[in-house]
Amino acid sequence: MHISTLGEKTGHGRELGVVYASVEGVNDESFDVCIVELIEKAHKLGAKALVGLQLVQSQFQWNQRTSLLATALAGIE
Predict the structure, then answer these.
(1) pLDDT per position as a tens digit, 38-75
(2) CB contact burial 41-50 (16+ within 10 A = b; e otherwise)
(3) How far apart, in whole angstroms, are the C-alpha atoms of residue 40 and residue 62?
(4) In angstroms, what CA-CA distances link 2 with 8, 46, 71?
(5) Coarse DSSP helix, strand, coil percentages of the chain, rounded to the nearest 5 percent
(6) Residue partners of 31: CB distance under 8 A and separation at least 6
(7) pLDDT category, 10, cuts 50, 70, 90?
């Protein structure tokens, strides 16, 4: 899975939509689990790349979460 910034997007990619994943925790392990979940969701849409990856880590005492959001693209080599 290719992950890049929006500035790297070429005219060859077709946007499939936005993918979102969220898991408990705000550490390296939770980020790793979240990125795997995000990539799995993108693959189910037929994506070959993710652009505009955004990370949100909520550190409320009672609900610590790591969330990722990105645009899934098809047709990127």
Answers:
(1) 999 999 999 988 888 899 999 887 789 999 999 998 87
(2) bbeeeebbbb
(3) 28
(4) 11, 13, 12
(5) 25, 50, 25
(6) 55, 66
(7) low
DSSP state of 7: G
Q: What is the side-by-side strand order in the sheet with 63-74?
A: 2-4, 49-60, 63-74, 14-24
Task: Using DSSP bridges, classify how beta strands 63-74 and 49-60 pair: parallel, antiparallel or unpaired.
Answer: antiparallel
| Residue 42: its H or E element | helix 28-45
How buried is 9 (Cβ within 10 angstroms: 0-12 exposed, 13-18 middle, 19+ buried)?
middle
Q: For 2-74, give the CATH class.
A: alpha beta
